[in-house]
């Protein structure tokens, strides 16, 4: 078996490609994909019958070049619209919720949005329990709400 792999190193490099691609599924940062691209370069050099040290050199060179040249483009495509999509607590702005503890004028209360309870303030009059509110802004984890 080992003698077969030594005489067919392209097969070993192909296995490295698939292992790297499977590992990339759990990481998602495209570094392991770059090593898979390097393994493709090594497999091609193995198919031409080049010595093992040249194959390793091809793997390292192709990996580094893909980290510099391909990875930034992949990340750019993956995160192309990320500046337009709010995340975390910013995604709550504009959403409607229900008051679970009265929001006093000049004080604090609590509102529930999608099952999560958030501390809230209001610039207007007191908002009673059970009333519908809209989140208009936030300061850290404190939401500013208005009556709907």
What does this structure look like?
Pfam families: NfeD. It comes from Segatella baroniae F0067. One of its GO terms (cellular component) is plasma membrane. It is a multi-pass membrane protein. Keywords: Membrane, Transmembrane, Transmembrane helix. The longest helix has 19 residues, at 9-27. Helices cover 46% and strands 22% of the residues. Helix 2 packs antiparallel against helix 3 (31-47) and helix 3 runs antiparallel to helix 4. The chain is rod-shaped. It has 148 residues and is α+β, with helices and mostly antiparallel strands. Strand 1 and strand 2 (109-113) form a beta hairpin. It has a 5-stranded mixed beta barrel with strand order 1-2-3-5-4. It folds into 2 domains: 1-80, no CATH class; 88-147, Beta Barrel (OB fold (Dihydrolipoamide Acetyltransferase, E2P)).
If helices are DSSP runs of H or I spanning 4 or more residues, what is the number of helices?
Answer: 5
Q: Strand share of the residues?
A: 15-25%
* Mean pLDDT across every amino acid position: 90
Distance between the termini: 73 Å
**Class from helix and strand fractions:** alpha+beta
Fraction of residues in helix: 40-55%
Q: How many discrete structural domains?
A: 2
Uncertain regions spanning at least 5 consecutive residues: none
Instruction: For the largest sheet, list the strands in their spatial order.
Output: 1-2-3-5-4
Order of helices and strands: HHHHHEEEEE
Rg over CA atoms, rounded to whole Å, is 28 Å
Apparent shape: rod-shaped
- How would a crystallographer describe the biggest sheet? 5 strands, mixed, barrel
What quaternary form is this? single chain
Count the strands?
5
Transmembrane segments: 6-23, 30-46, 52-70
Membrane topology: Multi-pass membrane protein
GO cellular component, one term: plasma membrane
Subcellular location: Membrane
């Amino acid at each position: 078996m080992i003698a077969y792999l030594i005489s067919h190193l392209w097969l070993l490099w192909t296995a490295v490609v698939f292992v790297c691609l499977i590992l990339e599924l759990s990481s998602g940062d495209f570094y392991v994909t770059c090593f898979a691209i390097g393994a493709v370069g090594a497999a091609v050099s193995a198919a031409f019958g080049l010595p093992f040290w040249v194959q390793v050199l091809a793997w390292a060179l192709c990996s580094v070049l893909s980290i510099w040249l391909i990875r930034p483009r992949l990340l750019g495509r993956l995160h192309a619209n990320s500046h337009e999509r709010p995340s975390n607590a910013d995604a709550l702005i504009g959403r409607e919720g229900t008051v679970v503890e009265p929001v006093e004028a000049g004080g604090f209360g609590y509102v529930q949005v999608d099952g999560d309870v958030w501390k809230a303030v209001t610039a207007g009059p007191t908002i009673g329990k059970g009333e519908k509110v809209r989140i208009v802004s936030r300061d850290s984890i404190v939401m500013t709400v208005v009556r709907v």
